[in-house]
Amino acid sequence: MQPYLIAPSILSADFARLGEEVSAVLRAGADVVHFDVMDNHYVPNLTIGPMVCQALRNYGISAPIDVHLMVEPVDSLVPQFAQAGASMITFHPEASRHIDRTLQLIKSHGCQAGLVFNPATPLSYLDYVLDKVDMVLLMSVNPGFGGQKFIPATLNKLSQARRLIDQSGLPIRLEIDGGVTVDNIAEIAAAGADMFVAGSAIFNAPDYNAVIKQMRQQLAN
Ligand code: DX5
Ligand code: ZN
Question: EC number(s) per UniProt (predicted)?
Answer without folding.
Answer: 5.1.3.1
